[in-house]
Amino acid sequence: MSEKAKADLILTNGYILTVDPSRRMIENGAIAIVDGRIAAIGKNAEVLRDYEGEQYDCNGGVVHPGLIDAHEHAVWHLVRCWVADTFSVREVWEDYEDPLVRNISSYDEHLGMLLATMEMALNGTTFFGDTGSSRHLEGMFTGGNIVGVKGFTGAGIGDNYIPELAIMQYSTNKCLDILEQQLKDYPRTRKRPVGAHIGLAGMEHCSGDLIVGSKELAKKYGVQMQVHLSVYEDEVKYFVKEYGMTPIKYYDSLGVLDEGTTLVHAIQTQEDELPILARKRPYIIHCPGASAKYGLGALSGYFPEMMDMGVDIALGTDAGNWSDGLDMFMQMYLAAVGHRETKKEAPIFTREDVFVMGTINGAKALGVESECGSLEVGKAADIVVHTTLRPEALPAYDRLNSLVYATQGKTVNSVLVDGEFIVKDGKCTRVSLEEMAPVFNEHAMNLAERMKFKLQRTWPLV
């Protein structure tokens, strides 16, 4: 009898959703982890025949890849849930985002990233993409590298900002210098899992020269270029007036659309732009919660048609005060049910479709599909384990159906990144929420005072 290989950890007795190319689901499954990577995955008996080591009993709970939140603005999370339902998009920019970016400090950004990554971890997200929000990179990156969640983020910049956000506007060359310097200063490593990439404000806020230059930097440093595009109706009108064509056609004319480019929102994609997306295959990040909150139209957009044409769609939560929460299961739910409601047809996106969007497609959109997004031998052990001891998880029959439509993040019990528990038995392992909660509240109120932001209430507070 051959000697068993040593594993650092073996997860046993799991109901495993691999999201591998064959989309295997393994009942009574096990995963052996060696040096932060998946060394074996299969039935309990198979894995335990070949490996020995410390075991963690999943007790029949669902086990799946860490979720990928492909678009958010995590650094602003300290001020989420401040904006009243009555705010228009313009009022959000003028009365909230402008005073925020003018008054936010490095420590505010540190705390915002810490709060956001704690919420992500506790809801099963192990990798995120922030399109760029920061004015204080050091505070943001130190805050982001505490909990253990992986991600990309960077400076919030543009060379053609609207007046309300002009403090984040620089010359084209200065923008490119900032982007390249952050790539040099903040590479993503195993010890520092949150690093820099190319994220742009996009929309009306970036010139063609900045877009092309940023694309060249992304190729040089081997990262994705992520950019907001086709978000608002007024944005489309701006492009037609300024460039004589709609946004996606304009980006195509610049030669920047390919699998190395990720377009965020794409709500206002026009029907005659769909063949461009099908041909060039940029990744699309659908943020149904952010759009639905402000009635922007994503749930009546062309996302089902994009998928049918072979375009890979990922999901994102977006920023605090746009969708407010960072539970990726909520975005799966909204994507699954929202398009059915607007098209009066079912199904449009199935439970399988939206789960793929929240895992492997998110990894593709961030350029890390060789590392994460599915449970396969050789990939990082970024793994979520759910409990069955919640009423939402019972009866334990169609597990994927339950995840998307019933349990969502409420049943997340433990989360591993690179084989290390960053959440165990419902608590972050590296930082105490009980200790940090009063700090978050105190500094949020302090920031509100500096912003001169007043919460709007329709019910009397006595």
UniProtKB/TrEMBL annotation:
InterPro entries linked: Amidohydro-rel, Metal-dep_hydrolase_composite, Metal_Hydrolase, MTA/SAH_deaminase
A Gene Ontology molecular function term of the record: hydrolase activity, acting on carbon-nitrogen (but not peptide) bonds
Transmembrane segments: none
Record keywords: Hydrolase
Taxonomic lineage: Bacteria, Bacillati, Bacillota, Bacilli, Bacillales
Pfam families xrefs: Amidohydro_1
Domain Amidohydrolase-related per the UniProt entry, residue ranges: 63-420
Name of the protein this chain belongs to: Amidohydrolase-related domain-containing protein
